[in-house]
Amino acid sequence: MSEPTVVTVTGAGGQIGYSLLFRIASGQLLGPDRPVVLRLLEIPQGLGAAEGTALELQDCAFPLLARVEATTEMSRAFDGVDVALLVGARPRGPGMERADLLAANGGIFAPQGAAIGAGAADDVRVLVVGNPANTNALIAQSAAAGVPAERFTALTRLDHNRAVAQLAAKTGAPVSEIDGVVIWGNHSATQVPDLSHATVGGRPALELVDEEWIADEFIPRVAKRGAEIIAVRGSSSAGSAAAAAIDHVHDWVNGTATPGRPERWTSVALPSEGWYGVPEGLVSSFPARSVDGRWEVVEGLDIAPVWQRRIDASVAELEEERAAVRALGLLG
Ligand SMILES: NC(=O)C1=CN([C@@H]2O[C@H](COP(=O)(O)OP(=O)(O)OC[C@H]3O[C@@H](n4cnc5c(N)ncnc54)[C@H](O)[C@@H]3O)[C@@H](O)[C@H]2O)C=CC1
Ligand SMILES: O=C([O-])CC(=O)C(=O)O
Predict the structure, then answer these.
(1) Do 84 and 74 form a contact (C-beta atoms < 8 A)?
(2) What is the reported pLDDT for 2?
């Protein structure tokens, strides 16, 4: 067995944390031969819940779980961290947009980014889940001196999975037959779930579903699914968010290629290097493959004007969020 991988989960006492930790400890995050040390970071009010979960994790006797520690100290939590899942942040309630959380949550991510810069392993991988995830990732990344920007990502895999599931339901195809879906932009109601490159059992999705369904049902359903879950469930999505976080890190570490689908891609929010005209530095969602442990954005896809207008609106929102957090003094 290899040396254990240090995985830090912030907000470990919360609802996503509770869905996430058992799956990480059982090997579903990294693979069946990778032992893990779990570090659970909480604020004092959440520490008891995290400590209780640590006891339960021990009771599972997971063969891959080398150690679990709960702490309120950031420097301890991020010391030598290989994979950081930044979940800890307030969720929204009914009637709120995710951007309404910027003032409440933005302040969490600069100190955590700085602590990652100070203590993390050289090849740390960071996934921001706490909302508004893209701009929180930007805040953390800008505070993490010495860590390459590409090591910071935000979660749009949940949106990607939702889009795949909606297309599967509409066409009657199994999800395993769907490929080439893309989420562009922000993890918000302006996000762009794009089917123009998608295939269903090898056939272009655009031959199977019409533009009206895409514009009037598919896009709003996927983009507003978080609000739908809040309305129906009474609190924001947790199990599906944890599952998407697992998928994201699993693919980052192990690659996106699968048997028979070497070119498979997924959607990842990461600091733009100017791809598809998205201003440099904005943490925006792109189609990406993971190759040799690094994300590679899929370049050169044709974007029809109708999709480009939608993408532009989401990127404009990300620029507004960046201006807002800059004004709050949260960008290094
Ligand atoms: N990007 C995505 O796709 C999704 C993002 N989310 C977001 O994930 C976040 C967490 O959601 P839940 O687990 O449902 O919330 P929750 O309220 O159940 O748990 C959040 C936990 O974070 C802790 N916390 C707060 N500040 C902290 C800090 N500075 N350091 C460490 N821990 C801290 C709290 O004590 C609490 O235990 C929310 O912001 C939510 O909006 C939720 C679903 C999907
Ligand atoms: O909608 C929310 O506030 C939680 C979230 O990000 C999602 O479910 O996509």
Answers:
(1) no
(2) 82
Q: 50: which 2 tokens?
A: 């995290």
CB-side exposure of 77: number of CA atoms within 13 Å? 26
> Which CATH topology does 157-319 take?
L-2-Hydroxyisocaproate Dehydrogenase; Chain A, domain 2 (3.90.110)
What residues pair up with 186 in beta bridges, in sequence order?
Answer: none
DSSP state of 186: -
Q: Specify the residue for token string 């272009």.
A: 204
Domain with CATH 3.40.50.720 in the chain: 5-154
The pLDDT tens digits of the residues spanning 168-199 come to 999 999 999 999 999 999 999 999 999 999 99
What is the distance between the terminal CA atoms of the chain, rounded to a whole angstrom?
40
Show the tokens assigned to 261: 């689908």
How many residues in the chain?
332
Catalytic residue (choose from 160, 187, 248, 250): 187
| Per-residue pLDDT at 1 | 65
Strands (E), 243-326: 266-271, 283-291, 294-297
Yes or no: domain 5-154 corresponds to CATH 3.40.50.720: yes
The Cα–Cα gap between 151 and 137 comes to 10
Asked if the bond preceding 204 is cis, omega within 30° of 0, the reply is no
For the stretch 240-265, pLDDT in tens is: 999 999 999 999 999 999 998 999 99
ipTM > 0.85, yes or no: yes
Angstrom distance (rounded) from CA 192 to CA 285: 9
- Ligand-binding site membership of 260 (annotated): no
Question: How far, in Å, is the centroid of ligand 1 from the Cα of 130?
Answer: 5
**Residue 105: per-residue pLDDT:** 86
Catalytic (active site) residue 248: no
Q: Is 12 annotated as a binding residue?
A: yes
Max CA separation in the chain (angstroms): 55
From the CA of 88, the nearest ligand is 1
Answer whether 157's CB lies under 8 Å from 256's CB.
no
Angle at 78 between CA 161 and CA 122, to 5 degrees: 85
Least distant ligand from the CA of 45: 1
